[in-house]
Amino acid sequence: MAIALRFAAAPLRLRLVSPAPPAIGGAGDGGRGGGGGAARIGVLGRARCRRRRGGGGRLEVAAAAADDSARCRAKGVGAAAAAAETLGGIEVGGGDQLSVVMKFGGSSVSSAARMREVAGLILAFPEERPVVVLSAMGKTTNLLLLAGEKAVGCGVIRVSEIEEWNLIKDLHIKTVEELALPRSVIHTMLDELEQLLKGIAMMKELTLRTTDYLVSFGECMSTRIFAAYLNKIGVKARQQLDAFDIGFITTDDFGNADILEATYPAVAKRLHGDWIRDPAIPIVTGFLGKGWKSGAVTTLGRGGSDLTATTIGKALGLREIQVWKDVDGVLTCDPNIYPNATTVPYLTFEEAAELAYFGAQVLHPQSMRPAREGDIPVRVKNSYNPKAPGTLITKQRKMDKVVLTSIVLKSNVTMLDIVSTRMLGQFGFLAKVFSIFEDLGISVDCVATSEVSISVSLDPSKIWSRELIQQELDHVVEELEKIAVVHLLQQRAIISLIGNVRRSSLILEKAFQVLRKSGVNVQMISQGASKVNMSLIVHDSEAKQCIKALHQAFFEDDVLTEVEEEALHMS
Ligand SMILES: Nc1ncnc2c1ncn2[C@@H]1O[C@H](COP(=O)(O)OP(=O)(O)O)[C@@H](O)[C@H]1O
Ligand SMILES: N[C@@H](CC(=O)OP(=O)(O)O)C(=O)O
Known about the structure:
The protein has two domains: 99-394, Acetylglutamate kinase-like (Carbamate kinase, 3-Layer(aba) Sandwich), CATH 3.40.1160; 403-570, VC0802-like (2-Layer Sandwich). By secondary structure, it is α/β, with parallel strands linked by helices. The protein has 16 helices and 16 strands. The protein has a seven-stranded mixed beta sheet with strand order 4-2-1-7-9-10-8, sandwiched between helices. Bound molecules: adenosine-5'-diphosphate (ADP) and aspartyl phosphate (PHD). Residues 105-106, 135-136, 141, 218, 286-287, 302-305 line the site of aspartyl phosphate. Residues 105-106, 135-136, 141, 218, 286-287, 302-305 line the site of aspartyl phosphate (PHD).
């Protein structure tokens, strides 16, 4: 193994964080270096609007299907839907301006029953004047991607047989029928989608640009259905709004576009203007934008609806941004890896951003930036358990008692060990290495360096096509080999310990104790400039076992509590 444990060699401390995306007409051209794809470089450690609702705001809420409510109540989640059923005649909004964003993810709007529940949640806060952001229903985005891939190879005649296309069609038609809406709400969209799949089949080609257009149908359909449902039950909802039509302007990086500065005034003007003219709840598509050069539909990267929500929050200077999920907030680790995870009640924007960037699926990696810039609190809530307090993310929080906040795992990481072929003292080596990454548009997560060698971890998971990953890796190795000896190490995992880096010795001491006992050898360690994150790289095969052991030690063991208390007394 090339590296057992590698610390920064020089005392120099740099904090370089990727800049905000360029403004339109600014220096940047919106290329891949504009944010999402740029390297993040840490310490020599981690590269890397109010109007009172008039009489028209009175609600007459139709009764939802009794069987859905019974099922939801059995899960302890029925209060909101029940409220929707019984809230006839309440007035939405006592103030003048839009006040919150409420974003509901795919799991929150996966069926007709869930859409009723979400409508109930919105109505359960009659004093709020929300902007609603929705993702595609359930797993629709994944299904669209698979349908597109299959269309490439199946021939026009067989498009109607693509299983994923039929699942998408059936889910949306069933939802419309169960909500007693006219089929016309989505018929045009479904027809267009089928035509698009046939076009892909005919061309035998699926570009990133077409892929973005294809997946956009998910959000375009969920929002049309939901807006129609709200209107049907008597809640005045603006007919659905496509983000790409209301000012979401992005770079042209299809699949992972960055939001440009021009978006904020444009979105504020449109949403505020609409509200002033006619106060009705806006239902906006998450995840989507419009490329500023191409004018084509773009997507903001997987999970991008969170970013849509925080962008609207900042644009309108709202009181709060709520992201409603299927978990009780941000948890101490991924509950799919270790089910004993518990809710983290408070986080800073910085902690949440690190957590998301290093792989916690719960938040989109870029979503904290607008919230932080606008200083707007983000609340992560559970639409299946609305009474749970969730996680509140703010600029600052009391850190004196904080040791570790959350443990995050990023799997399928590739590492590169790069040793200079020149002599010790050769300057410009790091610059050359990073210019190669920049030229190839490769994103770097963690870095550990000495004067003549550098170890980095890359994150190929952001790229959608598997073949492209291998091609890109081969290319980067080929380029680096012109100046260095390169070892490519695949199937690694980054375990990020998000916490109070002022207690780094305590955290690392405990973490290494745990890992040693588990017989795990750490291959690289890196501590970010963010002051909230320490990253350890281990082999993928050992990672889940590490997460479990670390969680037990940090969040479940009494022994640690003693160590923590001792450290806290000393400070
Ligand atoms: N640290 C974590 N805290 C909470 N959820 C996490 C964490 N890490 C991973 N997850 C996963 O993220 C999921 C929620 O995110 P996501 O699926 O994007 O929600 P939505 O689609 O509702 O916006 C949870 O169901 C959980 O499986
Ligand atoms: N539908 C998109 C965008 C999104 O944000 O989804 P969700 O909120 O369900 O993670 C996706 O699956 O990536």
